[in-house]
Amino acid sequence: MNWEVILWTCITVGVLIAVCGIVMMIISARNMKKRRKEISEVHTTLRVGNRILFAGGLYGRVVKINNDETIDVEISKDVIVKASRYSIQNIESKYK
C-alpha cells in the first residue's frame, strides 16, 4: 500500500471540505444580513391599518400599537388579540 498517496488524498479531501464550509458560511452570513435588514424595515414601517403576516402563518390587521413590544391585532371581525411585534414576519398591504 502506498501510504503517501493515501495521505495526500486525505489532505486534498479535507481542504476541499474546508473550502466548501467557508463558502457556505459566507453565503449564509449574507442571507442572514439581508433578512435582518428586511425584519428591521418591517418594524420601522409598521402602522395602524397594516395587514400583517405572523411567523405562524396567521394574518391580521394592526388596530393599535401599544408600546415598543406589543400590538393589538384584529384577526377576524371583532376578534382582537394582543401580540408581540417581533412575531410579525411580513407586512402584506396597507389599508390607510
Q: Can you tell me about this structure?
A:
The protein has 96 residues and is α+β, with helices and mostly antiparallel strands. The chain is 45% helix and 33% strand. It is built from one helix and five strands; from the N terminus they run αβββββ. A five-stranded antiparallel beta sheet has the order 4-3-2-1-5, with helices on one face. The longest helix is centred in the N-terminal third of the chain and has 43 residues, at 3-45. The N and C termini lie far apart (77 Å).
Concise overview:
This protein is α+β, with helices and mostly antiparallel strands. The protein has one helix at residues 3-45, and strands at 50-54, 59-65, 70-76, 79-84, 88-94.
